């Protein structure tokens, strides 16, 4: 273990897990954390207490890491995910098994109240020279620091004071185990002056020479980033991206994030590697706008890997020796033969993928090209002496946060219907690793960490050259994308589509009278249309403005599960209901989420519905005999999935941001004055709590929030009165 800087983690399966859902089952997935920092997440295995994942990851470790924790979670689409338990593997345990450990480990309960205080590692030296004596203090690292921020971590930096002089280290974002390895020198007077004072502080923004603090004001986006917890930052980023994308302002929004992020003290080789709002927003932006492009680029190679199922392994410690030859003439392959064969297969996959990427610049969506063009220019201006950095900035998103995750887990990006088997997963992992090394634009660095990748070095070096040429074409002139101006998404872009089974009931209209039982449905920002097959001429459609509800149907209604109902009004103003069956519960929830998001602001949405069907002369759910009467259960328009594939609905995203900001008014105010006080202690208020004045940059935001809240209360419909079960007269 001491000789390696990375740990290979393979999550195989679980058994006898507790049931967390009312159905008597669970939807388990795993999260791997290094010292409480989430690194990877497995796919969810639905409806089982004995899940099989078969996923493998390689995580990089600091030399002083303490533990690796694997949390088993239960996913719930309609509420917060439950924690089933965790397995904690300490550094000492790994040292006892230098060749690795494989076996069953019992889950333990999670202690949310664990607290640590921390230590700091220093080196102090006395220097003699022609310029006199000097005191050098080297701050190496710290460990077990207290978690001071809401995201469960800290942003530590070191302040060193001596003889009236103060020097500060860089800030290590979101870490309780920071490494600085920075030295500070002070003139040593005669006689020696005061004691050397070293303080560790938690800072939530940047050092004093930061761009944001020059005029004593703090940008609202920075405040939002600093007051949003790590758990919420991904959701907030998605909301912001969809809001500005729908308004045609996503280019300006991302450019602002790039400007604020680059104003912080940073190194060119670590740009956008943290999980800041800028990084999360760009990652979400690629998923929202670039999934068709991703499928076009990765689809053929992913299909080839799944179909060929070739054995690919380059690590000598994991090579499996096999028999080869015809019957009666078997011989055992040598380790070098197996590895050479694996190298050829992997190199073939990598070559095909890089060739596809190289040719894909013209087909990349213009809005993505515009965003990367801005990023490329910003980084080039920020680091004029490191022109290499602007290429790495683009690949840090395109390769490390978009291509590689989709290669490792294609099912999560809808590239495949099922998870890969163990052999295919290993091939995909190695291919994703190769793309990451190409994206780093320095293949030699990967070879230094894992020597067994050396045979792949020529292909990686050639790939880096291809990638650089591709980025140059990708960020070409704006005229190549069809002129200047704001880039909007297509008004009728497909939100969701797929085959659904139609349950026939009494009613009129093209959907209910069609002879076909399975139709291809296509949901856009305008209508829910249907045809006999993909690509065929549509039979009819339901305008989104006419939809009144999208809800689940009781399983007993049709003897089938995963059925949803779409309540709508036809051309004659008559209310009709379409019953559509999905192939699985995941697909059902995705359809409901998409429909509710595009229709959630319709003014005549129903407040109640029937979860059953009207059969014979009554409803199967409540036995009412009035077919058009008020429903017996409330509708759930607000229950949606927070998924990148959800439709663009600027109003809905604005509502979610309003809810988030409404609960952050006091933290925003406190954070503002805290940052101002760091910049200018003389002109900042003594009180930073409720008694502090509202800063000018926030007063307008608070006024808007108050106006929106007043409008919301004014327009909110009153809840329907509960029906009386018994009326007494006197």
Automatic annotation (TrEMBL):
InterPro entries from the UniProt entry: C2_dom, C2_domain_sf, PH-like_dom_sf, PH_domain, Ras_GTPase, RASA4_PH, RasGAP_CS, RasGAP_dom
Stretches assigned to the Ras-GAP domain: 232-440
A Pfam short name: C2
Start and end residues of each C2 domain: 1-105, 116-233
GO terms, molecular function: GTPase activator activity; phospholipid binding; zinc ion binding
SMART domains given in the database record: C2 (SM00239), PH (SM00233), RasGAP (SM00323)
Keywords: GTPase activation, Metal-binding, Repeat, Zinc, Zinc-finger
Name of the protein in question: RAS p21 protein activator 4
Species this protein is from: Anser brachyrhynchus (Pink-footed goose)
Classification of source organism: Eukaryota, Metazoa, Chordata, Craniata, Vertebrata
């Amino acid at each position: 273990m001491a000789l390696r800087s990375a740990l290979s983690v393979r999550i195989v399966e679980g058994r006898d897990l507790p049931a967390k859902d009312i159905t008597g089952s669970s939807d388990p997935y795993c999260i791997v954390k290094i010292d409480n920092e989430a690194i990877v997440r497995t796919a969810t295995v639905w409806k089982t207490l004995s899940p099989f994942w078969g996923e493998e990851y390689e995580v990089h470790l600091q030399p002083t890491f303490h533990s690796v924790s694997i949390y088993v979670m239960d996913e719930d689409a309609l509420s917060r995910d439950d924690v089933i338990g965790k397995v904690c593997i300490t550094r000492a345990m790994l040292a006892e098994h230098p060749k690795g450990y494989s076996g069953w480990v019992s889950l333990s309960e999670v202690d949310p109240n664990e607290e640590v205080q921390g230590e700091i590692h220093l080196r102090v030296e006395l220097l003699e020279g022609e310029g006199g004596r000097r005191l050098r203090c080297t701050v190496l690292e710290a460990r077990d620091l207290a978690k001071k921020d809401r995201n469960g971590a800290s942003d530590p930096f070191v302040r060193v004071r001596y003889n009236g002089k103060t020097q500060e280290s860089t800030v290590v974002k979101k870490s309780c185990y920071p490494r600085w390895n920075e030295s500070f020198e002070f003139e040593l007077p005669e006689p020696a002056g005061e004691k050397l004072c070293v303080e560790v502080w938690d800072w939530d923004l940047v050092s004093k020479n930061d761009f944001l603090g020059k005029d004593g004001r703090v940008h609202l986006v920075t405040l939002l980033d600093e007051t949003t917890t790590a758990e919420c930052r991904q959701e907030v980023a998605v909301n912001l991206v969809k809001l500005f994308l729908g308004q045609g302002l996503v280019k300006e929004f991302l450019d602002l994030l790039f400007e604020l992020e680059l104003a912080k003290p940073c190194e060119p080789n670590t740009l956008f590697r943290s999980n800041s709002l800028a990084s999360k927003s760009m990652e979400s932006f690629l998923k929202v706008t670039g999934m068709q492009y991703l499928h076009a680029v990765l689809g053929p190679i992913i299909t080839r890997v799944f179909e060929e199922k070739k054995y690919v392994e380059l690590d000598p410690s994991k090579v499996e020796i096999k028999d080869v030859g015809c019957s009666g003439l078997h011989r055992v392959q040598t380790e070098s033969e197996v590895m050479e064969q694996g190298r050829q297969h992997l190199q073939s996959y990598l070559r095909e993928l890089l060739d596809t990427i190289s040719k894909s610049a013209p087909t990349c969506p213009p809005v993505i090209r515009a965003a990367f063009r801005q990023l490329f220019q910003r980084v080039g201006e920020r680091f004029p002496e490191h022109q290499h950095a602007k290429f790495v900035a683009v690949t840090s998103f395109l390769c490390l946060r978009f291509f590689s995750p989709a290669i490792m887990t294609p099912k999560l990006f809808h590239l495949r219907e099922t998870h890969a088997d163990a052999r295919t997963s290993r091939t995909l992992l190695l291919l994703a690793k190769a793309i990451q090394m190409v994206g780093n634009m320095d293949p030699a660095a990967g070879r230094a960490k894992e020597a067994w990748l050396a045979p792949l070095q020529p292909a990686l070096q050639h790939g880096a050259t291809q990638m650089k040429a591709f980025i140059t074409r990708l960020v070409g002139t704006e005229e190549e994308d069809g002129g200047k101006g704001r880039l909007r998404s297509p008004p009728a872009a497909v939100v969701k589509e797929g085959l659904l089974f139609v349950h026939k009931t009494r009613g009129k209209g093209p959907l209910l009278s069609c002879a076909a039982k399975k139709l291809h449905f296509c949901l856009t920002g305008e209508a829910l249309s249907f045809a006999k097959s993909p690509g065929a001429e549509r039979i009819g459609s339901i305008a989104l403005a006419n939809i009144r509800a999208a809800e689940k149907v009781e399983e007993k209604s049709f003897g089938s599960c995963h059925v949803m109902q779409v309540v709508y009004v036809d051309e004659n103003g008559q209310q009709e209901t379409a019953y559509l069956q999905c192939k699985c519960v995941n697909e059902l929830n995705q359809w409901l989420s998409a429909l509710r998001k595009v229709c959630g602001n319709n003014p005549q949405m129903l407040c109640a519905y029937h979860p059953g069907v009207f059969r014979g002369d009554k409803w199967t759910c409540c036995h009412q005999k009035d077919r058009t009467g008020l429903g017996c259960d409330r509708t759930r328009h607000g229950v949606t999935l927070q998924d990148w594939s959800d439709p663009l609905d600027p109003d809905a995203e604005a509502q979610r941001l309003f809810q988030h900001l409404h609960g952050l008014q006091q933290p925003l105010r406190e954070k503002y004055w805290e940052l101002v006080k760091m910049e200018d202690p003389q002109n900042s208020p003594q009180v930073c709590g409720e008694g502090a004045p509202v800063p000018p940059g926030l007063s307008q935001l608070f006024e808007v929030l108050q106006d929106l809240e007043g409008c919301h209360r004014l327009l909110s419909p009153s809840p329907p009165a509960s029906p009386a079960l018994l009326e007494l007269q006197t």
